[in-house]
Amino acid sequence: MTTLAHHTPAPPTQAALLKAHTKAQVLEQLRIPVAVISSTVFPTLALLFFVIPQGMVTSNPITALTAIAQLALFGVMSSFLFNYGIGIAEERANPWNSYLRTLPAGPVPPTIARALTAMMFAFFALIPVLILGGLMTSAPEAFTSGDLSWGRIPLSVVVWLFCGLPFLALGLFIGYLCTSKVAIAVTQVVFFPMAFAGGMMLPPIMFPDWLNTFSLFLPSRAARDIAVQVLSGQGMHASSVLCLVAWTVVLGALALWANRRDQGRRFR
């Protein structure tokens, strides 16, 4: 008599789940090329139309680097907030994604996969900003003169992506609380005032005193100051790192609470 051995397949590892979720989310983003292209070229167009024509900015290497860093972070913030704030709200109405949330994989693999996907597409948005800034401003002179190290450029790209983490958490918070139509309005209402008050459209040196003081408490201002400091060596306030870490923790806790609230309401 032959005994047949029954082998129960081993459950997938967290790494395998993370890889599968990341691949699925990248493909999902690529299915809407217009959205990918628009989020990629948006900061480049802002640099082309609002910075390049200003000779006083482009002729000074440090002010040019400051403008490039501000718009690079603007692109990261835009990618994270809109992809998560609106994307999560739309997925909650999708039956397939509702089914995925009932699986025993848990929220960690899809959440990390979202962060990796958002960082990847935000990275693509940074490349044309750096190329255009290098070709059409005097920014490279700060490096060719030896005043700044070339290593600041790749380091800046990494720092800019990590400076987007509080906005990623804010996008999750909005997405898990709002319907898709409400999320579009809320994200726009939050994004533009925060970007302006954070000094991404105008340098904080042009702010009145009350706005400058207020902006120091915002995550966008802290992220902007760190982004500018890493690339140009100037502009960071003493409280910037502490402010960004505090906002990342607070918004991360709110995003986790919103996720559990939505999970409890829909799958209890």
Automatic annotation (TrEMBL):
Subcellular location: Membrane
InterPro entries xrefs: ABC2_TM (IPR013525), ABC_2_transport (IPR000412), Nod_factor_ABC_transporter (IPR051784)
UniProt GO cellular component terms: ATP-binding cassette (ABC) transporter complex
Key words of the record: Antibiotic resistance, Membrane, Transmembrane, Transmembrane helix
Alphabetical GO biological process terms: response to antibiotic
Domain ABC-2 type transporter transmembrane: 18-228
A molecular function GO annotation: ABC-type transporter activity
Transmembrane annotation, as ranges: 32-52, 64-86, 115-137, 157-177, 189-207, 238-258
Signal sequence coordinates: none
Membrane-protein topology: Multi-pass membrane protein
Protein's name according to its UniProt entry: ABC-2 type transport system permease protein
